Structures are given as C-alpha cells and as structure tokens.
Amino acid sequence: MLRALFGYEEHPDFPARFNIAPTQPIPIVRLVDGKRHFVLVRWGLVPSWVKDPNAFSVLVNARGESVRDKPAFRSAMKYRRCLIPADGFYEWQARGSGPKQPFYVRAKSGKPLAFAGLWENWMGPNGEEMETALIVTTKPNQTLEPIHDRMPVIVPPEAFDLWLDTMHVDDETASVLIAPASDDLLEAYPVSVAVNRTANDNPKLLELFKPTDAPAVAAPAKARAPRAKPTQGDDGQGMLF
User: Fold this and answer.
1) 3-state secondary structure (DSSP) of residue 28
2) Exposed, middle or buried: residue 194 (CB in 10 Å: 0-12, 13-18, 19+)?
3) pLDDT tens series, the chain, 241 aa
4) Cys-Cys link to 38, which of 8, 73, 192, 194 (CB 3.0-4.6 A)?
5) Are 177 and 155 in contact (CB under 8 A)?
6) What phi, psi does 117 have (nearest 5°)?
C-alpha cells in the first residue's frame, strides 16, 4: 500500500513500528534524479554545519512559519524536502496538573498519511556520514485544536511532486502546502499511557483507552488521594509536535 501510494522503486522490508521516538530510524521518500526513493534516516535533523552532533540539540520538528528563515532549516527547505510515510501519530493533551493524556491521530479513511519533512546529510571530519530528517509542523485543525496547538503538515497525494521536486519548485512555492489539514481528514481518540515508554512498541498501543481500563484507587475518607509517583524508567516522549 505504501509503495503504491508513494511510488518509490525500492521493495523495503522495514518492520511495522507502533512507537517511534526521536533518534530512531524513520522512513522517508525523496526525489533523486526525478525518481522517488525510500530511505531510512535518523529522526532528528542535524544541519551540515554542525561540528559535533552529540553536542547539538535534536531537531525533531520545524515550525512551518519560520522554516524558510531559520539557519538550521532554510537550506533543507530549498534543496532537501521529503515525505515521511505514517499510518498516524501520537499527541499529548495537557490536563491541568494531572498527567498528559496521549491520543492517536489517523486518517478517517484508514489510508496512510504523508508528513512534510526535511532531510540533511551530515559529514564528520573523519569521513563519518549520517542522514537525518524532521517533520514540518503548522497550526492545528479543528480535530487537533482541543488536544494540542501544533500538528504535522500533511501533504495530499496530488501535491507530492510539488513538495518533493526541489529542482523545479522553489521553497516559497512549496511553502503553500504548510497549512493545517482539512477538518474532515483526521480522527483522534485516547490511548493508554503505555505509549509514554519507548520500549513499548506493539499494536496494543493503538487500542482505544477507556477510563474504566485503569485500576481504581480508593482514597482514604476525608483525605486527598496521594499523587501517583512516576513509573521507574518512564521515558515519556511528551509532546512531539
């Protein structure tokens, strides 16, 4: 399905993932000599001018409003745009002083999505080479607005070439695609906080979470229930967009 939608030449054997975190491999589709190709890169863009990637903050996302101006992004926006295939994404909703509620967001049709991405090729002084990418974000549509104030830019299939063809489409023209998705494209529903642990990577993470799924904790009479301590080793991803 992905190969048919994105039109790349490769036949990759990339396993299904259900909880991808920054610095892990992600697939991207990019244009090389007029043809689309599937490539695995690291999620977290490292600009080519960075001397030490280990001392550089991971750039997971780029705000679409300033992507043409920021030094870390403007070269990639001109010459290295890509698409990032996904079935959906997670977003976390703040709930006062309590823990954030994760949501899974997907297309109502069940079809894959294409996030607008940028990629870079970093080369070190000793010949090291690393390809990285990030997701371009924008303001939320009506589906995402109650959950978070950002969302990934989703490129419709008819605009794939407009975003990918950096040789014939300049960054200003391509930036017209940096806009919230149509309000009827997506649906979102709550999922378990198990997604907060990057070690959890299985289909159960996509199941609808109901409040009754959580074990009840009885509070002492006339006393405030104590706040639960965070689970040991919890490496929650927080808000990605």
Assistant:
1) strand
2) middle
3) 899 999 999 999 889 999 999 999 999 999 999 999 999 999 999 999 998 888 888 899 999 999 999 999 999 999 999 999 999 999 999 988 889 999 999 999 999 999 999 999 999 888 889 999 999 999 999 999 999 999 999 999 999 999 999 999 999 999 999 999 999 999 999 999 999 999 999 999 999 998 765 543 334 334 333 333 333 443 444 444 4
4) 8
5) yes
6) -130, 165
Backbone dihedral region for residue 78 (phi beyond 0: left; psi -120 to 50: alpha; all else: beta): alpha
The Cα 66–Cα 64 span in angstroms is: 5
Contacts of 65 (CB under 8 A, 6+ apart): 138, 178
Tokens 């997701």 identify what position?
135
CB atoms within 10 A of CB 31: 21
| Residue 109, C-beta contacts closer than 8 angstroms, at least 6 positions apart | none
